[in-house]
Amino acid sequence: KVFPAVLDAGGHVLDLGRGQRFHTAAQRLALLVEQKTCQHPMCDVPGAFCHVHHTRPWADGGPTTTRDAVLLCSFHHHQAHATGQTYPLRT
């Protein structure tokens, strides 16, 4: 299986296209640098305790990229899946 991969300066994968569903440790670290907390507007759970959420669901063709991901605490991550609610970045 061949798929595109975008690397950072250290050679860590930041974009896996459709080849992998779950974000890598390097992608998660990049997201933590950009998004310090849960991206729900009324939540301040630290990003280290958050899940990585695909803004476009992977099952619907969403890519595994840092551009298509937000950090959400467990509660808001489950809420996003249950309601379909989306959260813009609020870095």
Oligomer: single chain
In N-to-C order, the SSE pattern is: EEHEEH
Percentage of residues in DSSP E strands: 5-15%
Number of helices: 2
CATH fold field value = DNA Binding (I), subunit A
**Number of separate strands:** 4
Adjacency order of strands in the biggest sheet: 1-2
Shape annotation: globular
Could you tell me the mean pLDDT?
Answer: 83
CATH class: Mainly Alpha
Radius of gyration, rounded? 13 Å
Known CATH architecture = Orthogonal Bundle
Distance from N terminus to C terminus (CA atoms, Å) equals 35 Å
The chain-level structural class is alpha+beta
Main beta-sheet strand count, sense and barrel state: 2 strands, antiparallel
Q: Percentage of helical residues?
A: 10-25%
Low-confidence spans: pLDDT under 50, at least 5 residues?
Answer: none
What does it look like?
The chain has 91 residues and is of the alpha+beta class. The chain has a single domain, classed as DNA Binding (I), subunit A (Orthogonal Bundle). 22% of the residues lie in helices and 14% in strands. The protein contains two helices and four strands; from the N terminus they run E-E-H-E-E-H. The strands form two sheets. A two-stranded antiparallel sheet has the order 1-2. Strand 1 and strand 2 form a beta hairpin. The longest helix has 10 residues. The radius of gyration is 13 Å and the shape is globular. The termini are far apart. The relative contact order is 0.21.
